Amino acid sequence: MGRSVSTPNNTALVEYLHLEQDRYYCHDCGETFDDPARVEQACGHIHPVCPHCDSMDFSEQDSQLLFDDFNEDLETLLKEAFPSLAPDEKWLGREDKVLLSNSYAYFGWSEYCGLVAVWVSAKEKDWRASSAWEAMRDRWISSIEKKFAKTVGKAWGSPLTKLGTFSNGEAVFSKKG
User: Fold this and answer.
1) Three-class SS of residue 42?
2) CA 151 to CA 138: how far, in whole Å?
3) How far apart are CA 152 and CA 9, in angstroms?
4) How far apart are CA 85 and CA 127, in angstroms?
5) pLDDT band for position 37 (cuts 50, 70, 90)
6) Average pLDDT, stretch 25-53?
7) In the chain, where does DSSP find H-type helix?
8) CA dist 126 → 122, 130, 147 (Å)
9) E strands present in the chain
10) Nearest 5°: CA angle at 84, between 121 and 17?
11) Confidence at residue 85, expressed as pLDDT on a 0 to 100 scale
12) What is the mean pLDDT of residues 40-54?
């Protein structure tokens, strides 16, 4: 898979996921599916139907609902794993959404065509911070690396490994495991 997804400046940790969504939702059986079956009806015409129950009562799903659910799920998982995090909804740049933060880092995600980067971005040193603050920040971020990866792995989506980046900025990924 070759794509690119934004991460903010000062990104210290990043995990990649591919969010998959079935295209259709059947209102009769509640199942989701990508491609409807084609069945010849009594009238002689071929109609698309749900492959699970042969119903013609289905509709396309709203992808915004997928991202809203992912956002809520990720926020809950991160709060449980890292109790020092507090809600902090803002944007770092134009594409990177902050969900939570503490005094050392921003936690958030960015998305491009279903490819999601969940990241930890180190905060800039405040002029009031002590000289040891940066070392404490960097130590704290490095101490959460494994727990962060494990926590993001619990969110829905297929975990990916970034294999590399081409000179045009396009990155290449493969499924983990």
Assistant:
1) coil
2) 20
3) 20
4) 22
5) confident
6) 82
7) 63-81, 133-143, 145-154
8) 12, 9, 27
9) 2-3, 11-18, 24-26, 32-33, 37-40, 46-49, 58-60, 86-92, 96-101, 105-112, 115-122, 158-165, 171-175
10) 45
11) 97
12) 83
User: Looking at residue 3, what is its pLDDT?
Assistant: 61
Mean pLDDT value across residues 148-162: 89
- Contact between 170 and 2 (Cβ < 8 Å): yes
Report the mean per-residue pLDDT for the chain.
87
pLDDT of residue 60: 77
C-alpha 93/C-alpha 149 separation (Å) is: 24
- 126 — pLDDT class (breaks 50, 70, 90): confident
Q: Residue 115 and residue 14: Cα distance in Å, rounded?
A: 13
List the one residue out of 69, 66, 65, 48 whose CA is nearest residue 57. 48
Q: Which two tokens mark 119?
A: 């990241």
